[in-house]
Predict the structure.
Amino acid sequence: MDPRRLALIRGGTARKRLSVGSGYLIAPRLVLTARHVIEDRDTRAEWPQIQIRVGHSGNGATVSTGADVLWKHPQDLDVALLLIHEAVEVPDSPVRWGRPVGKAPLPYEGLGFPLATSEEEREVEHLRGVLPLLSSGSRARYVLDQDPAPDHRTDGRKAWGGASGAAVFCDDHLVGVVIEDNQSYGNRRLRASPAHAFVQESEFESLLRQYADGPPQLVDVGASLPKARLPADRTPAEQALELALWHFLGDPKVCSFHARPLAQELGYQVPADYAPSLSDLMALFAGNRRALASLSGTLAPTLTEDTARARLTALLTRARAAGLGSLLSLAEYERLVQLLSGICKERATLLPRATSEALRYVCLSDTLSRPHLPVDELGSFVEELEAMSDSLQVPDGTPQVPALLRLVEYVAAAVGGEQAAELREWSARVAGRTGIHPTALDERRVDAVQWAARQPSPVSRVVLELTGVPQSPDERYVCRILVARKDGTRVPLHESWTVPKTPEEIAVCLREAVDSAAEEPGQGDQVPWVTVLVDRHGLHLAVDEWNPGAPNAFVPDRPIGAEYRMTLSCPDMSALVPGRDRDQRRRWRSNHPTPLVTDQKCATDRQLTRALATSHRDATQVVIHGPREQRMRLLEVSLALGVPVVLWDREADGYEDAPKLSPLDPLGLLAELPKRVHEFRAEALEPTATTTARPALVWEEESGHPKPESLRLADPRIGVQVS
C-alpha cells in the first residue's frame, strides 16, 4: 500500500458536490474505486462532474484533476475504473494483486476518507484490522473487521460514508475494494468486493494492458504464523489463560503435539521445523479466536480424570467471557454452516423464525431478527449467536447451554428426518467438548420438540413501530416490526432501535417481514394488513407512500400502500387520556350505524366534542373534512374520545375537496373500509392517476378483545353481519 496512490473522489454537478468517496491509483491515469461513488444512488446515472485529488497530504504534494468513468463491472459488481484527465507520476513498484487463501484471518489495511474523520476537509483514515475468510460466505464479498471504528452518528448519517472505494491490502497485495459497512456490528465491520472477482474480467485486463504495465497477476496470500509476544505485552486475562493452560501443556512435547496440528488446521503456513511452545500457542489464540476451542477438541479426549475435565470446562467458560475465544472450533463452525446452508436455501424464513421463538426474551439485533436469512449472511448469523448464552437453569457446576445450541435444537425439531439427526449429533458433540451437562441439553431438546409440534396461531397482521430521529438532517426513523397473531401474541421480526433508517430502507424491511408472514402455513392469499404504530406527531406521516423499490427485475416498483392494507394506530394517546381504551371498547361494541362526518357545523374542538358526547356518543367512525390546519386537531380530539376508526384526506385543502374521497365510499360497510382504502391507494398512487386524494386511515384494535378480523359487526342497513 502506497499513500502516494491514495485518491479522494468528489462527484456531483457543476453547482454542488453530492458524493465523496475513496480510490487508489493503479496506473498513471487509472483510479480504482467503488461504482456507487460515481453514481446517483436514486437514478444510477453517472455524476456529470468528477474531481479527484491524488496523494496523501502528509507525504508531500497532492495533484487535483478531473476524471471520467472508463469502466464499470458488466455483472453489476460494485467496482469501477476512472480515467483521470492528467497523468500522475506513480512510484516505481507496480501494484501487486492478491487472492486471500486459507482459513486463518489475514491482517489487512487501507486508506480512505470516511465522514467520521471530518465532514468538510475529509482527513485520511488508516483502515486496519483482520479479514476473516470464514466469515465471507461464498467469498463474493469479503468481511473486514475493523480495529479502530467510529460510533454511530446521532444525525443518522453513516460514519463510514466516504470510505467506499478504498483499496484493501493484505501482505502488501491489493485484494479488494471497500463497498459498504455493516451497521449491525456497531460500525466495526466493512465489506469489500474481492479483486479476484473483477481483475480477470476481459475489459479490465485490456485496460491495464493499455494504461499500466500489463494484465494483473493474482498471487495467493496466506496468513503467516503469528509471532509470540512477551508476557509483559499480554493482557492480564491472557496471562491468566497461559497459567491455566500450563496444567495441561506444560510439557514442551505435549504442547508441540497439540499446537502444531492446530496451526495447520487454522490455515497458517507451517514450516517443517515448527516446534511451538506455550508462548507460540498463545500467539495462535491471539491471531484466531477459534484456536482455543479447536485445541480443546484434541485436548479434552486425553483428560481421563474428572477434575482435569472440569478444569478445562471452567477454562473455556472464563476464556469466552474474557473475549479470548469463540464457542465453536473451526471444524464445528464449518460443519454447522454446511448443515444450515441447505436448510437456509430451502426455507429462508425458518432460522429467523426459530431464533425468535428460541430466544424470545432476548433483544435481537438486525442480523438475528431479519425475516429472511440469505445464505451469504449465514456466517455472520452464527457468529453473533455464539456470543449469547441461555439463561435457563443448568445442573450445578456445569456451564449454561449456549443460545446457538438451543437454536440448533429448534431447527432440528422443525426440519426432522436425517437433517435433524445430523444437527442433534453436532450439538451433542459441542456440548460434550464444552462440558455442558446432557440433562441441560435434553431439556432444551424437549422444548424444541414441543415448539415444533405446536400449530402457531394464524397471523393477524404485521405491526410496524416507528419513532422519528430528532435533529436528523434527512428523514430517518428507528423501527421495530412484529407479527401479531389472532391469539393476541406478538412476535418481533425486526429490531432496529439503534440504527436509524430512511423511509425506503424501512419499506424494504417491511416487505421482507410481510413476505415472511405470508409463507407461514394457513395464511391464504388475502392482501396483508399492516398496522403502523406512531405517536401523535407521527399521524401525518405518509407511510403508505414509502417505496421499497422494485422487488425483482420484472415487476415495477410500487409504494407499500399499493401493496398492502395499511392503517395507522396511536397507542400513545391512551397514555395521555385516561379512560380512552374504555371508550374505544364501548364504541366497538355499540354497532353504531352512522359515522360522524365533520363539516362547517363541526369545525372546532368544542363542536366535535359535543357531537361525540351526544348524538354520536357511540360512533365507531369519524370522517374528517376541512382545512389542513384544523384537521390534525380534530383527529386528536376524535382519538382522545375513543373513536377507533378515523378517515381523512392528507392532501385536501378544504371542505370543497370532500368529494375526492367518494370513490372509496367512506360511509360504506365499516369492516370493508381498509380494503376499499387499499384499492383506492393502489390506483391513486399510480403515475397516471388523475385523483390527488391521499386517504389516511386510523384503525385502532380493541384492547383485550377480538381483533378487527374476528369482529362481527351488525350493519342495520342490510340486516346481516359482516366480518
About this structure: The two ends are 68 Å apart (CA to CA).
